[in-house]
Amino acid sequence: MKEDTSAKKTDTEKLFHEFQNAWVELSDNDRESIFKMAEEYKKFLDAGKTERECVSEIVTMAKENGFKNIEDLIAIKKPLKEGMKIYA
């Protein structure tokens, strides 16, 4: 009686997975944006060596992107609405 080797081969293939290199699949634009993000992250790490410095850096970044301090809004009794850019 002849064995079905095709079924055994697929079972064996299931045990071994060949990993693809994702970097090879990326476009030049994707690589460029990855490097840009990495450089921004390195700058953030340089600026925030401690927890306090990190918080200060994050607050600065939030303000640059239009976020408002929730305590300032409460002080002037401005009502909070869904979708507002706030930080606490």
TrEMBL record:
This is Uncharacterized protein. It comes from marine sediment metagenome.
